[in-house]
Write a structure and sequence with these properties.
Helix 1 runs parallel beside helix 6 and helix 5 packs antiparallel against helix 8. This protein is 28% helix and 25% strand. It is of the alpha/beta class. A seven-stranded mixed beta sheet has the order 5-2-1-6-7-8-9. Strands 10, 11, 12, 13, 14 and 15 form a six-stranded antiparallel beta sheet that branches. A hairpin with a 4-residue loop joins strand 13 and strand 14. The model has no long low-confidence stretch (mean pLDDT 94).
């Protein structure tokens, strides 16, 4: 590539998290020749067409948009080749076949929401909070065959507050990640960045923690666990998909809570309430007070509003 010529960049991403990166790359003056995002989906009662956050942003900015149903579709591959990208950037997209990630001359760069090699997988923010980590960060790395294992380009760490939810960490991380991604692109352009292989647990790293996809069973609260573990699960799954328990034989999602360290009088999972201001559940070594909840079939609300209006069997 000629000196002073801006590299041709293809950006791949779908959710709101990726929009911050796309915006930062554009704001920095880089040349995005196309945006690849998920296909539109029909959702809701009226089956209204739902466009990804990245697509909405790309339309607003007048960018070329590609939405392949299948990444190995020959027509899509040909169109991709015709764009002659120098770099591909991937932020919260999907797993790419080698045919695609190996295409650009300067490689394909992924932004991941953890300090790799820790928390490889689909849900790094959730699992860092669930596990009570005090620190997390972002990593840019070159894609290779095995997921989240490519050579590291840049990393930046930041602290997680004791009361932060996964949603709050997500909102800070997308801004931090966007800045690191711009630095990465510029470092690749001027040749100042050197790739570093990821260390494994055998290479001096502490035991590797993983970040698999969150399933329903992950979200069910086990009241036999210590208060701290339950509290971290609640904030690690807030605001989505939400930790849950059962109350009056209905699903009760919990988004915010606080702790009380006192030997519980009840067996784990039993609850106490004054029917006005508090509802708490016994855990192994104390109580978890519910602060913001959503009863099955109802809207999200503060616990006081819920209790003052609830007329179920438990009342």
């Amino acid at each position: 590539m000629e000196q002073n010529k801006k590299p041709r960049i293809i950006f791949m991403g779908t959710p709101d998290f990726a929009v911050a990166s796309l915006d930062a790359i554009l704001y920095a003056g880089h040349n995005i020749v196309a945006v690849i995002t998920a296909a539109d989906k029909a959702a809701g009662r009226g089956m209204k067409t739902n466009e990804s956050a990245v697509k909405k942003y790309a339309i607003h900015k007048g960018l070329k948009i590609l939405q392949p149903e299948k990444l190995k579709n020959p027509l899509f591959i040909e169109e991709l080749k015709s764009l002659h990208a120098d770099i591909q950037i991937v932020v919260a997209f999907r797993m790419l076949p080698e045919l695609i990630w190996s295409m650009p001359s300067m490689g394909t760069v992924n932004l991941h929401g953890s300090l790799l090699p820790q928390y490889r997988g689909a849900a790094p923010i959730n699992w860092a909070v669930i596990n009570g980590e005090k620190e997390t960060g972002v990593t840019t790395f070159k894609l290779q065959q095995e997921i989240d294992t490519g050579n590291i380009l840049l990393q930046e760490s930041f602290l997680i507050a004791d009361d932060e939810t996964a949603g709050e960490v997500h909102d800070r991380m997308k801004i931090i990640g966007a800045k690191v991604l711009v630095k990465t692109i510029e470092g690749l352009i001027d040749g100042s960045l050197k790739e570093k292989p990821q260390l494994s647990g055998r290479d001096g790293q502490s035991e590797l923690k993983h970040a698999p996809k969150i399933f329903t069973e992950t979200c069910k609260i086990d009241w036999d666990k210590p208060v701290d573990q339950i509290y971290n699960l609640i904030r690690g799954l807030s605001p989505f998909p939400g930790a849950f328990t059962y109350y009056d034989k209905k699903i009760l999602k919990i988004f915010k809570s606080h702790k009380e360290y006192i030997s519980p009088k009840e067996s784990p999972g039993n609850s106490q309430t004054d029917k006005k201001n508090f509802l708490k559940f016994a855990a192994a070594d104390g109580y978890v007070y519910l602060d913001e909840i959503q009863m099955e079939g109802k809207k999200k609300m503060l616990i006081g509003d819920f209790l003052r209006g609830y007329r179920g069997e438990k009342m």
